[in-house]
Every structure is written in C-alpha cells, then in structure tokens.
Specification:
33% helix; 7-stranded mixed sheet; Isoleucyl-tRNA Synthetase, domain 2; alpha+beta
C-alpha cells in the first residue's frame, strides 16, 4: 500500500472546498466558536475549540442545513500595546501580522469557515458600528458617566471591572488592585438584573454550572429596607437592607460601609480609621447575604475572617422599641450591596454573631427552635417567633410577610430586592481600543460626536513610552471642535473595554455588509451552538446577554438571548517537565535533554500553560502528523466538556489509524475490478446499527463516542471483508467531519467528480436496528478471530460457549466479555 502523504492529500482536498456558499431556502444552523485573540500562535487548546465547531458545522451541512460558520478576530487589547512598548512595533502592525499567521494556521487544519465574513474588531469598519451603538445607548439612558471609585491596575495602568478582579488582583497582570476615583463611563446592566436572571430559565441548552455561576453573580436577594432614625438628628435616618426582616426585634447594633455617604456627611471616621477599614474591607464584589454568608462565587472563605468595626459617635433608634443601638462602620458591610447598611441580629446570623462576640454586644434569640446551643446562631428559616412583640407565636415565613406589610403601612420601609450585579464600567485608559465618541466643550459640556462624523479613529503616530494612556498625551488627536457650538473641544481619551467588541460580534457575522443588518439577524440569530471555555461564564457571556437586550431596546435586533445552546469545552492538558534545577521545560527541551542522557522530572498532567511550558505547538503537530490526525485525536478520548490529556502516543495512534483507513480503501479500489463483494445480512445489520448510533452521538455532540463508532466500523469491515462501494461510502461519509482531508481524497478515488463535503449524511433503516440478533467480535489474545451472531437474549454463558468453539482447542486462562461487543479469550496455549 502507498504511504500516507497527508500534505499532498490536504492540498488536494482544500482545493475542492468552497465554504462561502449558502442556500437561504434551507433551515439555518448557526455554529460559532468564540473568536480568538490574535496572539500570533495557535496551540492545541485552540484546536479543540475550533474542531468541535467544525465537526458540528460539517455534520449539519450534511443534514441539509444552511450553516453559518464564521471566524473573526478579537483584535483590540493590552497585549498589542505591550508589544509596542517591548518590541517597538505599532499595535496595528503587530496585530495584522499575527492575524495573517493565525489565518494560515486555521486554514491548514481544514476548518470550514466562511472566510468571506471574516472580521476584525480593530478595523474602523467594525468599531464604527459600536460607536453608533454607544450613542444609541446614551440617548436611551443606558450609558452614563460619573466619578467613580474604580479598580485600578497599577501595572497595566487601567481600570478593571469587578469581574476582572480575581482575589484582589488584576485578571491579566496579577497586580494587587488599588482604589481610585476618576470619571468613568458605565452601561446600565443593573437595570436588566431581573431580566437576565429570569432569562436563564429559558436557556435549556446551557450547562447548569454556567447558569448557576451567572445566577450567583447577579446575586438576587429578596428582602426589605427598614429605616432607623438617627438619634439627635431630626428627620435623618439610615435605610438598611435585610433578607431577614422578621428578626428585627433581635437587632443589637447597626453597621454601615466605609463608603456609605454618612461617613463623610457626619464625619464619623478619622482619616486613619478610614484607611484601616478600607484595607480590611473584604472584596466588595463578594456580597453580603443576611441569611448566613456570602452568595458570591469567589473568596467564600472571607466570611470567616475577622470582623472589624469602628464604633461611631452616633446612635440609631430601633423602629419599634425605640431603644438606642450603637452604629459601627464595619469591614463586612459593602456599599455596593443593598443600601450599604445593615442591622445586626447576632442570634440568627453567623457574621453578626462573630461581630457581637468580638465587641461584647447583646445576643437575643427571637426564633425558638429545637436547637438550644446559644453559643451558635440559629440561621434556618423555620421555627416560631419569640421575644418579638406582635410577631410572637408566628412561623418565620408568616412573620416575614407580616413585618413587611407592617413597615410598609407605617411608612418606615418596604419589600425590596437587591442584586449583586453592578453597572458595567466600560472606560479603559489605553490606546489600542475603540475610541469613545464624545467630546468635552467648556461651553456645551459633554457632547456626542455626530453619527455622520463616525468613526472616530485612532491616531497612527503614538508615543508608547509615556506612562498611562498614550491618547491623553497625544499632541493633536484629542483636540477637536464641539459638534454643537463649533468651539474648541477635547475628545474623550478613554477607549472601550474590549468586552464591548465581543458582546455583539456574533450579530455582525450575520451579514457580509458589516455592522448589524436586522433582516440578516432575523435569519440567523440566535446562535444555535456557541462553543468556548467556561472561564467566560461571567464576563463575556453575561455581557453578551445584556448587550443583546440593550440592542433590542434600541431597535437593532428582535431577540433577547444571543445563544440558544452553549458547549463549554474542557481544557487540554499535558505532562509537565522540569530539569534537575526544578526549572520548567518545553516538551521539545525535555526530549532533547533525555536524548543526551540528562535527568528530566516528569510531572503530573496539568492544564497547558505558558508558565509551566507544557504547551504543544499546533504547527509542529500538523507538520509531523497532518491536520486530520490532530483533529481526530483531539476528539477521540473524552467528551468535549471534559478535560483532555495530550500525548505523543495518542496522536501517533490516530495517525496510524487514519493510515489504516487509507490502506483499507485502497485495498478495495485495487480489487474492485474483480467484482463487488456482496455484503451479508448480518454485516448490513451491524453497519446499520453503527450508522444509527453514530447519528445519535453526533446529534448529542458525544464526539468521542462517534469516534469510537468509526473505529468499530473499520474493525467490522476489516474483519468481515465486506468491502464494497456502498460500505466504503458509509465509512468515508461518517469520517468526513473528523478527518475531512483524507475522507474527501478517498471519496474522489471512489467516484470521480464527487465532493463529499456537504453531501447527504448516510441514512439507516430503523427496522434493522430492531433486530433480535447481535454480532460480536471474537478475539484470541486481542487478535480478531471471527464475527459471531447470537440472539440478544442469550446469556453470558451461552455466548462464551458458542464463541469458545471458534478458538478450537486453545487453553483459555481468562475470558473478557463486553456485552453486545466482544469476547476476548486470553490463552496460554495456541491450541
């Protein structure tokens, strides 16, 4: 048989394909893998994401769908600016070079993208539209500017959204984030908190884990606000938020955030005290939940940290008893949650209990329960109210409803929901981003740029060695004229957070015209299958859901949910390698040392990361094994949602398997002149069952199971010798989504002028799948002996007995039986 010249095969097959054609008469299917940042190099982790999407796109085309499968570049961002500083290259040039390189890599692996729709977010043709969106949001009251205390990354010298602060550090730089107050633009995502939360119920095609993460981040708390008057200050009060209003009679103190307005208004803290609390206050993105602990998804352990409070000079009055309660400024009360003020009921809240113990505050139980241990708070929402005046004798839920009605009727409070979700800060102090289309005029104040003057583009000549934002220091770009009065004005020198660009790109792909074309969006949106990492659950996916709603409100599109189904692929992992000094090595470095006889420590299989150097270069793999082997292996072992361990042995096995397929087909092609082999009924039933299972697995995106079925069919055809044009076509048709180059090449040999790409999927006979017989493979010491047909209801003993006759007099040491699949006899004597 001929050698497996995959490079020649890839070149041949790619010359046949046209991925830009579409038929609007067919039912649409929109499959989209999250578009990449153009870092310049694709690794195996990228491969898995994109191949999953490509397999699905090819399969759906074969089912007759009009498939939209586009690609683009998330091209703005800080790495390009860093390259400009470190390598003295303009961000645009750096980005364009990387895009060209990655485009070549993506095309080399046979991804069936419609390249005619390719977009780049750093192109003025793209960001002109998002500048229009921003102006529409501004007009609709969805965008606003205010002085705000922000998360400042001192290394990247930019503002970070709460979601971009992880354990107090910048999500990119890892620097400890500090607080600053500067003017910032915001989008009113908080106005959509309830809608975003309820919308999750309709997303039945999303993983529950992602929906839970978004639910926690939105952080809805149902409760009430209650007014506590301030002693000595007529008609002044503190409005507290609580999810447990029924425990009001157990209140022994009130506490406010260090950022509560009263701290400044009543001069409650010295500068030193204020700084102590600012440092001690736990991350404000982890919000307070009166029931018992934090409801957030990060820093959960902080609920156990020391509760620090500074006793103020004022007291507040209990709204029912009139008792005076001490007021603290405390490190566990957050300005961004509820009203920034709480009442403390130590007997029924773990955090309040810890605070009360530290400051020797009263602890009065107002819920009677079987629990008699007063050394611990009773936090469950059940029991009978006691020591609670008019609430005594009521069940907790009944008392909660009653107290809310009471405070509403006498005008000291009302039912209220609070949300953790804060408005999205979109200003970034960097050059390589989309300019914000507003100017500032001394006479007219802030003015939006006229739509006809868009896009506001970036200046080419920029000095990147200056500290902070290069646009702020540009000698000419920021100076312009006011669109209202014509007088001198200054441009806003901030640029949009790059998540602004990625929050609508899926809609831009719907039309080749650019921007959002409503009719095209009606045709293709929502995305039917969106594929990407679970690390985007809160950031990108939540922002995109909000942005879609904002675009809907402004009349651009008709949908509110952008992604019907979501697949979060698992990470690609690899062994780590270290030299004798403990330094991490790239796989090729480790191999080189081993060849020299030097010691290499092989570590556990971990997520691929540049820091541990356990990354595998995609170009090297494709060059050595071919695109099809890389595609086939990356989907072969685990379900797409699970992590995947890369190994040289695995990719080599996939390469050899594809070579085996090539040899099998060529064996048929070389012998077909001798006449077609008639496929027996038993083999037909087996093939029919494989097609049935394969179709089911493809529909369910169980791609590793589908790969197993390809193996099963190859084994069946090899063992039975049932090689015919019909059976070979079945093999190539189900192989094509996974190894398209080889399948296309062999299909051209099978029949002239036939292109496999886009041809109909193979059908199966439902009646044959109901057969009462099953065909098993009989093996001896792992080697194929013969196929054996048995009745489905045969016992294991009967099957083994029948199979044993096929190995004659061999001495059997052990029998491995896989129901419905195989009997393997391990024999010490050949017989």
């Amino acid at each position: 048989m001929s050698n497996y010249d995959f490079k020649k095969i890839e070149q041949f097959s790619q010359s046949l394909w046209d991925f830009s054609s579409c038929d609007f008469q067919r039912k649409k299917y929109y499959v989209l893998s999250m578009f990449p940042y153009p870092s310049g190099k694709l690794h195996i982790g990228h491969l898995r994401n994109y191949v999953i999407g490509d397999v699905l796109a090819r399969y759906k085309r074969s089912q007759g769908y009009n498939v939209l499968h586009p690609i683009g570049w998330d091209a703005f961002g800080l790495p390009a600016e860093k390259a400009a500083i470190n390598s003295n290259i303009h961000p645009r040039i750096w980005t364009e070079k990387n895009i060209a390189k990655m485009r070549t890599s993506l095309k080399s692996i046979g991804l069936s993208y419609d390249w005619s729709r390719e977009l780049s977010t750093c192109s003025p043709k793209y960001y002109e539209h998002e500048q229009k969106f921003f102006l529409a949001f501004l007009k609709a009251g969805l965008a606003y500017r205010k002085n705000s205390e922000v998360n400042w990354d001192p290394i990247d010298k930019t503002v970070l959204a709460n979601e971009q602060v992880i354990d107090g550090r910048g999500w990119r730089s890892g620097a400890v984030v500090v607080k600053r107050k500067i003017p910032q633009w915001f989008l009113k995502i908080s106005d959509f908190s309830e809608e975003l939360l309820k919308g999750l119920e309709s997303l039945t095609g999303w993983p529950e884990k992602v929906k839970t993460m978004q639910t926690n981040w939105i952080g809805k708390s149902e409760g009430a606000v209650i007014k506590f008057s301030i002693s000595g200050y007529e008609e002044r009060f503190i409005e507290v938020f609580t999810t447990r209003p029924e425990t009001i009679f157990g209140a022994s103190f009130c506490a406010i955030s260090v950022n509560h307005p009263l701290v400044n208004e009543l001069n409650l803290l010295s500068n030193a005290e204020r700084e102590i609390l600012r440092i001690q206050t736990t991350c404000e993105s982890d919000h307070y939940d009166d029931n018992k602990n934090f409801s957030g998804t990060t820093n959960l352990e902080k609920v156990h940290e020391q509760k620090l409070g500074i006793l103020t000079k004022i007291k507040v009055k209990h709204p029912f008893s009139g008792d005076e309660l001490p007021l603290y400024v405390a490190n566990f009360v957050f300005a961004e949650y509820g009203s920034g003020a709480i009442f403390g009921c130590p007997a029924h809240d773990t955090r309040d209990f810890a605070f009360a113990q530290q400051y020797n505050l009263p602890c009065l139980r107002v819920i009677s329960a079987k629990c008699t241990n007063t050394a611990l708070p009773y936090c469950l929402e059940e029991g009978v109210m006691c020591n609670s005046n008019f609430l005594d004798g009521m069940q907790v839920i009944e008392a909660r409803k009653f107290i809310i009605e009471k405070i509403s009727s006498i005008g000291i409070g009302e039912a209220k929901n609070s949300y953790r979700l804060r408005d999205w800060g979109i200003s970034r102090q960097r050059y390589w981003g989309c300019p914000i289309p507003v100017v500032y005029c001394e006479k007219c104040s802030m003015q939006p740029v006229k739509v006809e003057d868009l896009p506001v583009t970036l200046p080419e000549e920029v000095e990147f060695t200056v500290q902070g934002n290069p646009l702020e220091h540009h000698p000419t770009w920021k100076y312009t004229n006011c669109p209202k009065c014509g007088g001198p004005a200054v441009r806003d020198t901030d640029t949009f957070d790059t998540f602004f660009e990625s929050s609508w790109y899926f809609a831009a792909f719907c039309s080749k015209e650019g921007g959002i074309v409503k009719e095209s969006c009606k045709r293709f949106l929502p995305v039917d299958m969106y594929i990407g990492g679970i690390e985007h659950a809160i950031l990108h996916l939540l922002y995109a859901r909000f942005f879609t709603r904002a675009l809907n409100k402004c009349g651009y599109i008709d949908i509110v949910e952008p992604f019907r189904n979501l697949l979060t692929q698992g990470m690609v992992c690899h062994e780590t390698y270290q030299n004798s000094s403990g330094e991490y090595l790239y796989p090729e470095e480790a191999k080189s040392l081993l060849e020299k006889g030097e010691k290499v420590l092989v570590g556990k299989i971990e997520k691929m990361s540049k820091s541990k150097k356990n990354v595998v270069d995609l170009e090297e793999i494709v060059s050595k094994y071919g695109a099809d082997a890389a595609r086939f292996f990356i989907l072969s072992d685990n379900p797409p949602e699970n992590s995947f361990g890369w190994s040289d042995r695995g990719i080599n096995a996939s390469f050899k398997f594809l070579q085996r397929i090539k040899n099998l087909v060529e064996r048929y092609l070389s012998s077909k002149n001798s006449g077609e082999v008639q496929t027996g009924q038993n083999v037909k039933i087996q093939i029919n069952k494989i097609i049935c299972d394969m179709t089911k697995y493809m529909d369910e995106i169980k791609l590793n199971c589908a790969v197993a079925k390809i193996h099963e069919l190859v084994n069946l055809l090899s063992a039975s010798g049932a090689l015919s044009k019909e059976t070979i076509h079945v093999l190539l048709r189900i192989l094509e989504p996974f190894a398209p180059h080889l399948a296309e090449y062999l299909a051209s040999k099978l029949e002239n002028n036939v292109i496999l790409y886009g041809s109909p999927w193979v059908a199966y006979n439902e009646v044959l799948t109901q057969s009462d017989a099953v065909t098993l493979m009989v093996r001896k010491n792992g080697k194929f002996v013969q196929l054996l047909e048995v009745k489905k209801d045969s016992s294991e003993e009967e099957i083994i007995s029948q199979a044993k006759r096929l190995i004659k007099n061999a001495v059997v040491d052990k029998v491995i039986y896989v129901p419905g699949k195989m009997v393997n006899f391990l024999c010490s004597s050949p017989g």
